[in-house]
């Protein structure tokens, strides 16, 4: 990956955070679907669930000028498209290569985050080129099932970065979920907590206790219900799925 590929992202840090976070999220989704596809090779729904995020990563990378990521995603997309159209069955060798594509792309995306945060980058070009060669051989029918397992490293390079997710809906998908910067969620939870404290102080104010006003009492009760519901919703927003904690175990078992 060259620094020229990151020119656009350097000029728009918020877009860079979004691109990195969204790509990593897509790659996690792909890995989970691939592990399921390994058991149900002909499942077209799973193939589509894998193809779509690859297509999104390719499109986003191309639009932002990250050509190296775009090229890797595009080659894997070609292999998946053959399976989706019924011209190829995704066997174990195919799943192996696509899983390694997830590893390579994960390393590349993390490397982008590291470079943008001022950390030294890692030369992942040889790994990406080897992966592309493996995919091309599978597509052309020149690779044996066992040969495809030896061309690409099986674990992503360890490049540390901590991208935050900015709020947006995923492109090209009909989803009800959006990504929100965790700092904004933390601020919301804190604000709700303060609101509940103030509501309790008002509810228990001794000056109000002496006023037998049914309308005021009803309004205070309604306020209590609303703040309690808001607290439950805010806490639920801060929760994350537990599957990420166990997904890597499934991958290790398969490997």
What does this structure look like?
By secondary structure, the protein is an all-alpha fold. It contains ten helices and no strands. The longest helix is centred in the N-terminal third of the chain and has 25 residues, at 13-37. It is elongated. 27% of the residues are buried. The model is unreliable at 147-173 (pLDDT under 50).
In short:
This protein has 255 residues and is mainly α.
Which helices and strands occur, and which strands form pairs?
Blueprint: H1 7-11, H2 13-37, H3 44-63, H4 67-84, H5 92-116, H6 125-140, H7 182-203, H8 206-209, H9 214-237, H10 243-254
Helix pairs in contact: 2-3, 2-5, 2-10, 3-4, 4-5, 4-6, 5-6, 7-9
Salient structural properties:
255 residues, mainly alpha, 67% helix, elongated
- Beta content comes to under 5%
The outline comes out as elongated
Number of helices: 10
Give the ordered list of helices and strands.
HHHHHHHHHH
